[in-house]
Structures are given as structure tokens and as C-alpha cells.
Hints:
Order of helices and strands: EEEEEEEEEEEEEH
Radius of gyration: 13 Å
Helix content: under 10%
Number of strands: 13
Distance between the termini: 34 Å
Largest sheet: 8 strands, parallel
Shape: globular
Structural class: mainly beta
Amino acid sequence: MSIKIFKTKDKRNKTSTTVIGGSAMVVGNIVSDSFVVIDGGIEGDLFAPEALINGLVNGNIRVTSQVEVAKNSRITGDLIYKTVLIHEGARIFGKLHHQDDQLLENK
């Protein structure tokens, strides 16, 4: 399944992408300085500048730029973002926290 993120950027041009495939489950936190795609699942927190969530996340997600939550996703935890796109059918069991540029620079 190919999902375009925010129509303003083509993620295929990113120099580095971290992908958790559909058959993978990661136990532990993921910290990345690149675009992250979650098609499988993680039991832990995710920290990245940008992310596409199309699987399961049991933990908090913090993105410093933008995140897309696809219709097949299920997030149990808080989502901290600058820009978010949530597709119909996505399930988020937690709080949404918007961060502006000043708050992101101070943390």
C-alpha cells in the first residue's frame, strides 16, 4: 500500500528512511533522525522528525515535524506533533499534543 504524506513532499526522495515492516514487532524505543515508517508494530516510544504510522504503536510518538496516521493504524499512547494528518479509520487511544517551533527548540 502506498500512502502519500501531506501531498507537499515526496518521501521517496529522502536520503534515509527507517522502516519497520509489516511482519516485524520491535520491543523498545525507536530514536531516529530520519523519516520513519511503521507498517508492523512497536512496543515502546518513537522519536523522529517525520513518521508514517500504518501499524501498531504501544507507546508515545513524538515527531518534530509531521506525522501521518493511516487508516490501518492503532496507537495506544500520546502523539506529540507539529503537523498531523489522521485518516478515517485510524485509532488513537491517547492525547494529541501540538508543539510549536519554540517549544520544540526548548526540549
